Amino acid sequence: MVELLERLTSLEGMRPTTLDAVKLLRVNRSCSRIPVLYEPCIVIVAQGRKRGYLGDQTFTYDAHNYLVLTVPLPFECETQVDTDGPFLGLTIRIELSVLSELMMQMETRTCPTHVDGREPSVSATPLNAMLSDATVRLLESLSSPADAKVLGPQIVREITYRVLCGRRGGALQALLLVDGTRAQILHILHRIHSDYVCSLDVADLADEAGMSVSALHHHFKEVTATSPLRYLKTIRLHKARMLMVQEGMGASIAAERVGYESPSQFSREFKRLFGAPPVDETQRVRAMFGAKQSPTAQVG
Predict the structure, then answer these.
(1) Which fold has domain 230-288?
(2) pTM above 0.90?
């Protein structure tokens, strides 16, 4: 896995592949704890180590443990690069259509037997031989455009199946089976994630979920370890940083693009989250990934 990723990732950062659902990650030097944003995905590491922090939770994903996130989730992360070489890994986006198809085809006895809608939104799980083997074959297919086109989607499907049958299968199954409160919170999460540019009011979101404002805050924090308003702000700030780094936008334009009306408020909240003003943080990220290259995603 390490050899294949070394060959496929000459540049630092999160890089797209010929498969839309798959991205490759390379980090050449250790990074201290910084805010990151992951979409719902499976993260498999070949070399190095990452440690994530979400509220009072801490989780480590490395060559022995893969990560599963079932909601778009901002958290803090630090990267450890070993003496053996750079941090190397890949992410595979979780597709609900693939999950649904797999669960319809799987016999009941092969599915997780206990799904109560309270599965954690993020956790690390030991990587087994079958999942590791499928990951190697996926990386091998990416070396050939024809193989990637023909074999890649089937291997992505197999990896999803392996995770569905594993210890974190309940979390994936819950994405399709949850109802009641959990389903309402997931709906609000995806609403915020897709409509972050719009003016979203917490009271309106609570009405949309059929809850009181206090109930929305309580159940939302159970899933994300933060409040709806802070989640919205974090999503906007990550998106703005991506626009500044990738597209060279100024802070005021990026702020407007993600829904801020006040540039000064944007600058204050940006510095509070990332620990530096927009210009300094943009320069830091560009320097990390090379002056002429920038990361293609805001994940860490």
Answers:
(1) Arc Repressor Mutant, subunit A (1.10.10)
(2) no
